[in-house]
Amino acid sequence: MARARVHNFHVSLDGYGAGETITLEKPIGEAQGLFAPFDGRFIDGLGGVDAPITLDRALTTTWSQGIGAEIMGRGKFGPQTGAWTDDEWRGWWGDEPPFRTPVVVLTHHRRDPLHFDNGTSFHFLDATPEEALARAVELAGGQDVRIGGGPTTIRQFLAADLVDFLHLVTVPLTLGAGVSLWEGLAGVEDRFTVESVTSPSGLTHQFWNRVTSG
Question: Helix (H, G, I), strand (E, B), or coil: what is residue 101?
Fold first, then answer.
């Protein structure tokens, strides 16, 4: 069966995964430091990148392995709120979004799908986590589904007990405010086995695998 997976999701020491306000200049609000250590060149593998292979970079490569679709919140797609306008916004990533798969964007406002030449397509859906996951599984063609964020979206899927695997990267900084990954999720760790490793860079990678019965 297809699994729902979270990969390379960065949080602060105090559990925040984004700032409180998203703007065009600050895609994750006042939390830009969370992604300062992230090297996105490695999301598709270790080959073809002229840089040393480190533990952090090697773990980054799991982002795309076996993934057939992604689910993201509207805030990850763009800074707009409310009804869509005709400003021709097509996401933060220009003409070559890195996903190369169908992407379900959770929104309360209807919009026609967007298709890109590199295989990425955005499908805008007003749905519960269960409905969104069912649609993403259909689009994934037998592969796994990545729950891409932001923190509110991941929190909703954790609350609904729909996450099979979570790769969490704790960054050694405190934000003091923002959007919490863990709010309302007391005891969620009981549903998972958790392993962790700290890299020489100071990042702590945690691997949460759902506990299966039997």
Answer: coil
